[in-house]
Amino acid sequence: MHDYRVMVRGRFAGLSDGQKAELTARLAEHDVLSGNGFSKEGGFAYLPDLGPFTFRYVVTVEDEEGEREAVERALAKAKSRLGAYGHGELSVSATDMRDIKIRRR
């Protein structure tokens, strides 16, 4: 088993006034600088203009499953969390954590 860091990016579109009010009220929870980093639950961040948003997931897969499965799982989670919020096309990028090299000083 190993982990992937997966980012799902998109833009809000066609939000109702109620959805805008809800997202604006919850902005402090989802602020880009509030520590919404990579997690299994998925960090969700967006800007006050309610344009772009990002989900950051850590997805653990079996060795034989690989990146495609990690991407599919993260995309499904993001779509589920977006629910009825209107959005444009989503883009996804993944990093296999085995490829990250740590520099020690």
How would you summarize the topology of this molecule?
Blueprint: E1 2-11, H1 17-25, H2 27-30, E2 43-46, E3 52-61, H3 66-82, E4 91-96
Antiparallel strand pairs: 1-3, 1-4, 2-3
How would you explain this protein's 3D organization?
The protein is α+β, with helices and mostly antiparallel strands. The chain has one domain. The chain is built from 3 helices and 4 strands, in the order βααββαβ. The protein has helices spanning 17-25, 27-30, 66-82; strands at 2-11, 43-46, 52-61, 91-96. A 4-stranded antiparallel sheet has the order 2-3-1-4. It starts with a strand and ends in a 9-residue tail after the last strand. The relative contact order is 0.30. The model has no long low-confidence stretch (mean pLDDT 91).
Question: What proportion of the residues form beta strands (DSSP E)?
Answer: 25-35%
Radius of gyration, in Å, reads 15 Å
| Amount of helix | 25-40%
> How far is the N terminus from the C terminus?
29 Å
Largest sheet: 4 strands, antiparallel
Global shape = globular
H and E string? EHHEEHE
Question: What is the structural class?
Answer: alpha+beta
**Which regions contain 5 or more consecutive residues with pLDDT less than 50?**
none
Lateral arrangement of strands in the main beta sheet: 2-3-1-4
Short overview:
The chain has helices at 17-25, 27-30, 66-82; strands at 2-11, 43-46, 52-61, 91-96. It is α+β, with helices and mostly antiparallel strands.
For the structure shown, list the relevant keywords.
single chain; 105 residues; alpha+beta; 4-stranded antiparallel sheet; 3 helices; 4 strands
